[in-house]
């Protein structure tokens, strides 16, 4: 895939990742934190602005969408993503590695001081975003593989 196409796929997948982050974050915060949807004392009621939250998630998604697609294309993999399932696997592995890295320090050194409510929220929140990203790149690579097959016949 050419660089321009990679960036376009990264931006689109990142936008989907951002939307998934927003939706998952809203659901997870309601489940984990209750009706206030945030840890006690973190936000004032007037700071709970959905417009702000959605545009920041979209921006985060675009940045990471491009980064993760460029990372994927740079990896020397013997098997490439050819389906939505492959995209989900790639995204899940990324999420798992990043989550383990994020949890490693507190689990080793600060086990008594871990705020489990926040950790559970962030694990659910990021998993939703990564799975949204995986769906998007899986779909994009599936279409790309289909186009390549049609062009060779």
Write a brief caption for the model.
By secondary structure, the protein is mainly α. The chain has four helices and no strands.
Number of strand segments = 0
Structural class estimated from helices and strands: mainly alpha
Give the overall form: globular
Helix content: over 70%
Average pLDDT score: 85
> N- to C-terminal separation?
19 Å
The tally of domains stands at 1
Strand content: under 5%
**Which radius of gyration do the C-alpha atoms yield?**
18 Å
The main β sheet shows up as: none
List keywords for this structure.
4 helices; mainly alpha
Describe the secondary-structure layout:
Layout: H1 3-33, H2 50-74, H3 84-109, H4 116-152
Helix pairs in contact: 1-2, 1-4, 3-4
């Amino acid at each position: 895939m050419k660089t321009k196409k990679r960036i376009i796929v990264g931006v689109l997948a990142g936008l989907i990742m951002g939307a998934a982050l927003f939706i998952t974050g809203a659901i997870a915060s309601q489940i984990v934190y209750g009706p206030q949807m945030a840890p006690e004392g973190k936000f004032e009621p007037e700071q709970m602005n959905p417009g702000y939250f959605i545009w920041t998630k979209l921006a985060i998604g675009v940045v990471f969408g491009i980064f993760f697609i460029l990372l994927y294309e740079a990896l020397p993999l013997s098997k490439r993503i050819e389906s939505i399932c492959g995209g989900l696997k790639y995204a899940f592995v990324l999420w798992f590695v990043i989550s383990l890295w994020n949890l490693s320090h507190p689990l080793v050194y600060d086990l008594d001081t871990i705020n489990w409510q926040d950790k559970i929220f962030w694990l659910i929140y990021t998993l939703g975003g990564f799975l949204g990203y995986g769906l998007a790149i899986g779909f994009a690579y599936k279409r790309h593989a289909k186009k390549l097959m049609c062009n060779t016949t």
